[in-house]
Design a protein that fits this description.
2 domains, binds manganese (II) ion, 18% strand, globular, 11 helices, 6-stranded parallel sheet
Length: 323
């Protein structure tokens, strides 16, 4: 069990030292990043803190616009001397803002977190950052329904609706606690699952068409080009969860999705049981045991795919002890 109580006092001291607080989450945010940040933001606001919420990304996922206070998320930081709370962010560069000289509280669950903050509250066993945030906050002041909705969506998303292999009974207890605060699970599930954009479905089709199988079909590779994104009108956030379709194949142990962006290629890695965090860090990225990613510039989709598959093969990753 993560000793969250050890962090609570220091957390309270830091909060009370500052008049203003800025809540941030990582660039190209997923629902855990946005949900955790919103849950923390709403909780602070309810306690009358002077608080703002920002994310530097141009297009944050619009599909999350049903979350309370979603419209409050700005692209810039207005407070000059605020305390920063970073949510779901493994390294400081992924916040994207100039934060020199700022005190930071880092709430996260990435095993590869670089402990960049004044106070690092990192639980790599937690299934979502919202799990860490909820346990941190709930005994200081009560969690409202609005905060609970944001934390629940973050939790349901990072566990792919309670199906990932880090799931355990305690997470159903947590979901149950959030529900008893007032989360309407039917309404939230409908909003999470049944409001897809057409572009996201089209890009899913393109991704699945690009599927290649390597190493006796143990590795699956999906490739998305800039052209694919342009033709479908898909945004990067429309690709959230696409790599899981490749992982779902019976033979596949490791699934890779390579997305060509303007300045680099982003690689998402998922595995069923093989620890891929070494693979992610080898290429300068990070993540969890069975989910991670990295970015590489000055390369092309086919070339990079070969390099990664080679690395997996030569490094014997497919034969490694499973977690
Ligand atoms: Mn997360």
């Amino acid at each position: 069990m993560f000793p969250i109580v050890q962090y609570r006092d220091e957390f309270k001291v830091l909060l009370n030292k500052y008049k203003k607080i800025t809540v941030l989450s990582h660039i190209n945010p997923d629902p855990d990043a946005i949900g955790t940040a919103l849950g923390v933001y709403i909780w602070l606001k309810e306690q009358k803190f002077h608080v703002e919420i920002a994310n530097i990304t141009e297009d944050i996922p619009r599909s999350l616009d049903f979350l309370p206070s979603f419209s409050k998320i700005k692209k810039r930081i207005d407070f000059e001397d605020s305390l920063i709370i970073a949510c779901d962010c493994g390294s400081i560069d992924r916040l994207g803002f100039q934060l020199d000289g700022r005190e930071i509280i880092n709430i996260d669950h990435h095993a590869t977190n670089s402990y960049f903050a004044t106070l690092n509250i990192i639980d790599p066993e937690a299934v979502s950052s919202s799990e860490v945030a909820y346990h941190l906050l709930k005994d200081i002041y009560p969690i409202s329904k609005e905060s609970a909705v944001a934390f629940y969506v973050a939790l349901a998303s990072d566990t792919r609706n309670f199906t990932t292999n880090n799931m355990h009974q305690g997470i159903f207890n947590l979901a149950s606690e959030l529900t008893s605060i007032g989360v309407d699970i039917v309404e939230v599930s409908q909003k999470m699952l049944h409001r897809r954009s057409l572009a996201s479905l089209r890009i899913l089709g393109v991704a699945i068409n690009s599927l290649e199988l390597k190493c006796d079909a143990k590795i699956a590779v999906l490739k998305i080009s800039q052209e694919n994104l342009k033709q479908t009108g898909a945004k990067y956030s429309d690709l959230d969860g696409v790599v899981d379709y490749a992982k779902s194949l019976a033979t596949v142990e490791i699934a890779l999705m390579l997305v060509e962006r303007k300045k680099d290629i982003k690689v998402s890695i998922r595995s069923k049981t093989i620890d891929i965090s070494k693979l992610a860090t080898h290429f300068g990225g990070g993540g969890h045991n069975v989910a991670g990613g990295f970015e590489v510039s000055n390369t092309d989709l086919d070339g990079l795919s070969d390099i990664i598959v080679n690395y997996i093969q030569k490094g014997g990753l497919l034969h490694e002890t499973k977690i």
